[in-house]
Specification:
about 260 residues, mainly beta, Jelly Rolls, eight-stranded antiparallel beta sheet, about 5% helix, about 50% strand, globular
Length: about 260
């Protein structure tokens, strides 16, 4: 089992205006690596297993990182490095036989301003290299308990117009996801501390319902799949009640996270 994980917004995210991205293939579409668009997958042009592609991110300021995620990728061999204080590229992780289309790895925290991903080989030999989401970040925490989740995938942003033949034409402008976590008689200081951290966050956070373990769910339902990682804000605060009105007891507090742009 693996509880919900929460991360800081990726330090390469499109919202990070100080971040500078460079890539050696299909540079025109590099924003697709960091804009969280589920309908877009970045793909190299003219690459094969003997032609590495290098993606470099300059955060624009020093950041502490300890978590790396790629979603919907076909990379088999790749190298992640950071530029240390002596201006030497230092290995964070190296893979030669990856088979995970959603790749997740954590490492000892390092503080740096630049990182680079060297993409070498693909799961199908000599295919173009693909990545949907590139996430480099720091974990805020992971729940040890399991508050009941309620996932909403709302297409309320769609508009419709009645056509001359009487049928409706729908125009979808995107989905808006939300999670409601129902902490019911919840106990345990680690989760209570994480709860407090989350409700006091001003910046949006990445919410990962699977926590990196999709097999805990009988079915790969949307919202709970490995690739389902959403940038969200706590929506409309929360209400807190002690179990049985006993101050030394568990607490009940529904907490809603809503996807942000």
């Amino acid at each position: 089992m693996a509880g919900f994980r929460f991360f800081k917004m990726s330090y390469a995210d499109a919202n990070r205006k100080t971040a500078n991205l460079t890539i050696t293939s299909n540079d025109a579409m590099k924003i697709g690596l960091v804009n969280r668009d589920p309908l877009f997958i970045w793909q190299s042009i003219g690459s094969d297993d003997s032609t590495p592609v290098v993606f470099t991110v300059d955060f624009g300021t020093s950041r502490t990182i300890d978590s790396f995620i790629l979603t919907n990728t076909n990379l088999k061999g790749f190298l992640l490095e950071y530029l240390n204080g002596s201006n030497v590229w230092t290995t964070l992780l190296s893979e030669t036989a990856n088979v995970a289309t959603t790749y997740f790895k954590q490492f000892a925290p390092v503080t740096c301003q630049q990182i680079r991903l060297t993409m070498n080989t693909t799961m199908t030999a000599n295919a173009e290299k693909t990545i949907q989401d590139f996430i480099i970040t720091q974990q805020i925490g992971q729940l040890t308990g399991y508050p009941g989740p309620n996932f909403t995938n709302n297409n309320g942003n769609s508009t419709k117009k009645k056509m001359i033949n009487g049928k409706e034409k729908f125009i979808l402008s995107g989905f808006a996801r939300s999670f409601k976590l129902n902490f019911q008689d919840h106990v345990g200081n680690p989760d209570r501390d994480l709860f407090t951290t989350l409700v006091e966050m001003v910046e949006p956070v990445l919410v990962w319902a699977s926590g990196g373990n999709e097999t805990q769910f009988l079915h790969a339902d949307p919202g709970y799949r490995l690739q389902d990682i959403y940038l969200m804000n706590v929506d409309n605060g929360y209400s807190h009640k002690f179990t049985g009105d006993l101050y030394c007891s568990g607490f009940t507090a529904p907490l809603t996270f809503t996807e942000t742009t």
